Amino acid sequence: MENHTLLTSYISNLKLDLIMADYNLCSTEWKDLNYTPDYSKLYFICEGEGWLKIGDREYYPQPGELFLMPEGVQQSYSCISSKPFLKYWCHFSVRSGDINLFKILELSHTCSAVDPEVVKEMFSSIVLHVKSGEIYAQLLAKSKLMELFSYYLSKLDPTEITLKNLSSVEKLTKILNHIETNIEQNITIHELAEIAHMHPNYFIRLFKKQLGVPPIQYITRKKIDKAKELLTSTTSTISEIAVQLGFSDMFYFSKQFKKNAGLAPTDFRKQMQLLPDNKGV
Hints:
With 281 residues, the protein is of the alpha+beta class.
């Protein structure tokens, strides 16, 4: 997939908020035309007939199909017979960092590869938690929505995910590739801004807006990912790895590593050596 690194960053920074969810039979009066919601929707059709229009595309969903209706896109829907939809549905918002995901990505509105029983189980759990009075219920519902949305994404063909704002995307892709290639170097903001042909302050704002974190935090995270790889696959000392990755302060390296991995570098290496696949490390 083109721009794989950038897509991975967007998706790994997803934040979903569930607004409402239910399972019910639509009335024969179920209808709304040419409106643009400020929330997204997922419909899972169980029975019945109906019509959807998302943007300029019309659909006649069949039982067992899952539909995504993104916020900010003009939509219409209606019942078309005496057999209205029986469906699971939810309203939600989804962000990557602080930006609406659908300002960044364009996704297929439906996915034919989903397993209806898997989707039904996830949706029924969401609705069950939404209607529960338990103090942790909304958290469980939100967690299940994340699972459902992730499942939807995983079932899309790569060609069904399109990056918007291609000029900015191309610049960021070039930046991320540079970071990946030079992760062992001391990468500066001015260096990256020059590659993007931007003023450093504007570059920092764009990077954070698109990826959800400032560039320095992103670089540090990538360095720690590389440190994990070196701790697992080499016999280099922790000091050698820190220096190799451009950390002149061992205390700072250990602090950042523990913040990211939850373990000090020494403990991380010991833990990885206990795993069956790493006995030879």
